[in-house]
Amino acid sequence: MNNKIKEFQKKLVKLKLPLALIFSTKLKDPAFFYFSNISPEYALMLMSSKFFPRIYCSSLDFEELKASSRIKPFLQFKKNTLEQIKKLTKTHKIKKIGVNFSYLTVKELKNLKKLFKCKFVDISDELLNLRAIKTNDEINIYKKACRLTEQIWSKALAQIQRKKLNTEVQVKEFIEQQIKLINHAPSFPTIVASGKNAAIPHHVTNNDKLNGFCIIDFGIRYKGYCTDVTRTIFIGKPTNKEEKFYNLVYETKECAANKISSGEKILNVVKTARKHLGKYDKYFTHGLGHGIGLEIHELPNLKETSKEKFENGMIFTIEPGIYFKLKFGIRIEDDYLLERNKLIRLTKAPKKLVVV
Amino acid sequence: MNNKIKEFQKKLVKLKLPLALIFSTKLKDPAFFYFSNISPEYALMLMSSKFFPRIYCSSLDFEELKASSRIKPFLQFKKNTLEQIKKLTKTHKIKKIGVNFSYLTVKELKNLKKLFKCKFVDISDELLNLRAIKTNDEINIYKKACRLTEQIWSKALAQIQRKKLNTEVQVKEFIEQQIKLINHAPSFPTIVASGKNAAIPHHVTNNDKLNGFCIIDFGIRYKGYCTDVTRTIFIGKPTNKEEKFYNLVYETKECAANKISSGEKILNVVKTARKHLGKYDKYFTHGLGHGIGLEIHELPNLKETSKEKFENGMIFTIEPGIYFKLKFGIRIEDDYLLERNKLIRLTKAPKKLVVV
Q: Which domain holds residue B22?
């Protein structure tokens, strides 16, 4: 991550920002953890091309986090800390300070402005772009995280096949228990939606018995990083038409994946996927995918309105789906890594519909 | 809660704000749930004295939350919703809009400003003050929530006494399991700190064996509302001096409680408590207490810098503590309700140190 700190410092030079303040407050800015490896209740990170990065951490967490912080000096946040930083800005004639507008409330910025006689400039895009290209360490974390995610799914599927899990809530609870058993956490609340419920992308898992198409959308948080996969299985006997719909969604995912290479425009890939769905395109009611990382939704954003291109080092989901209101829904989602111009599938949804 | 909506509308009139927008976005504003009884992924509430309150909710949650929303009309958030509201502001010649600066990111406000040609005014204080005085419904919820909290503690204590729970993590996990078993959630991550660890107010619960003074700080979230209690027990045989320290902290809590009445200045109560601690005051390193509600820290803030007074309808904690670095710590916290000028203790920390 030291290279990322250097890269960010270069960005600051380019933006003519001698100082950036990154906060861990009410909204825990993932950029704080990204650089420092810690996520305190209240802390402040100074980033500058002029002097070493440093952290001021509130006394509540100070002792606990001292050893884990990647950034040193690791100092205690005191009553006069902001005053000291203000002095620093005066000494160095700093007129502009970068802060992350996406992780600072209006009130917090207002309070900063009261104290500092500086202009505050948004650095959210720079931080997001930095995080979109994963480091080798992050890629290794993802390879492991995706293996663990697949293992959790195998266990859940085996229990469904043995008829040990028969309702949506049972599947959700089993998956979340298994994640806890390996000492990790879900990256978001597991979604299990079967029958008519599967036609609602954000259905709230309930006590309904599993039947027909059953969508299971879950992920784990491993060393801070989120995985996100969706499996669709069928409980009962699918008709030929139903199997064909599964195949269509699966092929749409493959078709999008085949189009991806470094430098390819994202919108072209989304268009290709939508074209593949043909007349069923209108039943595909959400984005084609999204970057994953410290947050469950990061850059790149696989949307038709995207102006970005795919780049090596990106890790993202591809998740086409079709939803027939009050009937059924299908979604298949895998995690991918674009590395040395090769798209690597990190998780493996089955090509053939799994029937239980 | 309808009275609270009316009260808030009156505040808007007083502030000369014809419109307030309350958002449920990245930061779920508790005020959104407060008025509506729902907490969507993305939604927007219009509050005005000029027209009926209404909600626009994103399609992801729309179907699920339609029935539970206390505020109708409950409409679907569409691509042109903000444009429609903009038209509304033009029709009604609205120049100023109230928003909650504490629950809106700088970026979100920036985007609103791009669209609306209005001034945005902070309504965070008005919302916090409104929530500080609980309604009868909220008081009833708290009475039940506190009973449940006490039951959880009784179960945990029984297990500790039977030597079934021997480490910090075991106590934490048992408490959180029991909370889950009654279909609720912890209001914050349970803190268990024993021996030297108890001297660190925000100690991260670990595998250390319980010994000496053992602080257990936890709460449940019941129907959205947070309880927050701390119990200190002793594992082993306390010296006379140690028992006296427990009594001192307990009496400090009682002494503060006895001072409280409607109209009493908060700072006077804090001073009284600190005075009672005498020369040990300097080992009391945090606030005396805080309001509880939809958030774990609300108004009133029991600090010496407070300018507020106690009022009927307030629900808050009193939690004195003393911490001797590298030695031990004691904290005792109960939840209280001030009702018809009478202070009611909703939870009951034992007067006599519990020795296991």
A: 2-132
Do B82 and B145 lie in one domain? The reply is no
pTM over 0.90: no
The answer to whether residues B54 and B100 belong to one domain is yes
pLDDT computed for residue A1 by the predictor? 74
pLDDT above 80: residue B1: no
What does the pLDDT look like over B290-335, one tens digit per residue? Answer: 999 999 999 999 999 999 999 999 999 999 999 999 999 999 999 9
Q: Residues, chain B, total?
A: 356
**Are residues B205 and B284 located together in one domain of the fold?**
yes
Distances (CA, A) of A34 to A72, A224, A344, B53, B142: 14, 9, 24, 41, 39
Residue of A nearest to B104 (CA): A105
- Facing A110 at nearest CB: one of B60, B101, B107: B101
Backbone angles phi, psi at A350, to 5 degrees: -70, 140
Q: Are residues A152 and A48 in the same domain?
A: no
Question: Cα–Cα distance between A246 and A265 in angstroms, integer?
Answer: 27
Q: What is the mean pLDDT of residues B64-71?
A: 92
| CATH code of the domain in which B36 resides | 3.40.350.10
Which CATH number fits the domain that encloses residue A273?
A: 3.90.230.10
Distance CA B182, CA B180 (A): 5
The answer on A205 and A273 residing in a single domain is yes
- What residues pair up with B209 in beta bridges, in sequence order? B167
Contact between A303 and A195 under an 8 Å Cβ cutoff? The reply is: no
Task: Answer whether B42 touches A (CB < 8 Å).
Answer: no
> Who among B102, B107, B202 is closest to A101 (CB)?
B107
Which pLDDT does position B26 carry in this prediction?
84
- Provide the 3-class DSSP secondary structure of residue A335: strand
Count of alpha carbons within 13 angstroms of residue B353, beta-carbon side: 26
Residue B306's identity, in one-letter code, is S
- The answer to whether A356 faces chain B, any CB pair under 8 Å, is no
Q: Are A22 and A48 within 8 A, CB to CB?
A: no
Please report residues of B whose CB lies closer than 8 A to that of A107.
101-102, 122, 124
> What are the residues whose beta carbons fall under 8 Å from the beta carbon of A17, sequence distance 6 or more?
A96, A97, A98, A121, A123
Distance CA A81, CA A76 (A): 9
Residues A160, A305, single domain; the answer is yes
CB of A206 within 8 A of CB of A172?
Answer: no
CB B222 within 8 A of CB B144: yes
Task: Map residue A247 onto helix, strand or coil.
Answer: helix
User: How many angstroms from the chain centroid is the CA of residue A324?
Assistant: 27
CB < 8 Å to B105, chain A = 27, 101-106
Q: In whole angstroms, give the CA distance from residue B311 to residue A228.
A: 48
Are residues B200 and B52 part of one domain? no
* CA distance to partner chain B, nearest, from residue A103 (Å): 6
The stretch B52-81 carries a mean pLDDT of 90
- Residue ending a domain, among B72, B105, B132, is B132
Considering only alpha carbons, which residue of chain A is nearest residue B61? Answer: A202
Last residue in a domain, options B114, B132, B150: B132
What's the burial of A38, exposed, middle or buried (CB within 10 Å: 0-12/13-18/19+)? Answer: buried
For chain A, 356 residues long, the average pLDDT of each consecutive 10-residue run is 91 95 93 96 91 88 89 92 93 94 96 93 97 98 98 98 97 97 95 94 87 98 98 97 98 98 98 97 96 97 96 98 95 98 97 97
Q: Do B40 and B170 lie in a common domain?
A: no
User: Residues 193 to 222 of B: which have CB under 8 A from any A CB?
Assistant: 200-204
Domain count for chain B, please give it. Answer: 2
Pairing mode, strands A229-235 and A225-226: unpaired
